[in-house]
Design brief:
Order of helices and strands: EEEEEEHEEEEEEE
Oligomer: single chain
Structural class: mainly beta
Distance between the termini: 34 Å
Radius of gyration: 18 Å
């Protein structure tokens, strides 16, 4: 029960913005996510009940290159170190801001991503899906000097190896919104909230809420810190998780 973490340029927020790097610009993101989660178990009569707690440590890394003023390409990789050590599904994609002004007012972008598969054994270990998948996001941003509002709509395919009767939901949809307050040239504070399709059959939706901060100690460097909670809505098993997210972003 998790949300996509590859290629999100506005770390630590899940909701992305329309900003691009500009022609010839580069960006490197190195992040760390600690997650504590309570899953579900199934009783002999087929009912769900609350499972035990587990933890995960994940390191997403994304490199972005600006091909034009409004078009970025990027590649993201994710390394999980516990409970299973290994590489997760990688992402290759682009973000195109096709309308509006990124600096002020409304702007709109589209971001498709190809998600590369992991091996069957890695899927069985919980490191990702063993089949190729993809995701596409529609992004809208409204930017003013004192605040920003970012809105996303997402679709992700969720194909994996396994018995079709026991497969997770094959199509995942999500919407989210993130208002951000610009305190000064160094600090931004924000909240982020959204709804996603629950991949598990225990409920139809996941809801999440997040608080986060972005601090720019020097020009072209940002440090992000966020806390996010995710809950399966209407689930008898009451599964949920929370994550502490931290990372550094460098433009060059």
């Amino acid at each position: 029960m998790s949300l996509p973490s590859t290629g999100h340029a506005y770390f630590p927020f899940i909701t992305d913005d329309t900003g691009t790097q500009g022609q010839g610009g580069n960006q490197l993101e190195i992040n760390y996510v600690f997650t504590k989660e309570r899953g579900i178990d199934i009783a002999e009569d087929g009912t769900y009940y609350s499972g035990e707690f587990g933890t995960r440590n994940v390191f997403p890394i994304t490199y972005t290159r600006g091909l034009t003023e409004d078009l970025d390409v990027f590649v993201g990789i994710i390394r999980q170190t516990s409970p299973i050590n290994g590489w997760m599904n990688a992402g290759i994609g682009f973000k195109w801001t096709f309308a509006g002004d990124q600096e002020e007012g409304w702007s709109f972008a589209i971001k498709p991503v190809l998600l590369t598969p992991v091996g069957r054994g890695m899927q069985a270990s919980g490191l990702g899906n063993g089949l190729t998948n993809g995701t596409v996001s529609l992004i809208s941003s409204y930017v003013k000097p004192q605040y920003e509002i970012h809105i996303n709509g997402r679709y992700t395919s969720n194909r994996a190896y396994g018995d079709p009767e026991n497969q997770q939901a094959p199509h995942l949809w999500g919407v989210s919104v993130a208002p951000i307050w610009v305190l000064n040239h160094q600090w931004k504070l924000g909240v982020d909230a959204g709804l996603e399709t629950n991949p598990n059959t225990t409920s139809s939706r996941l809801g999440y809420a997040q608080i986060g901060a972005v601090y720019a100690p020097v020009e072209n460097v940002q440090i992000g810190l966020g806390l996010i909670g995710i809950r399966a809505l209407g689930s008898a098993g009451k599964e949920y998780n929370w994550s502490l997210m931290s990372g550094i972003t460098w433009q060059f």
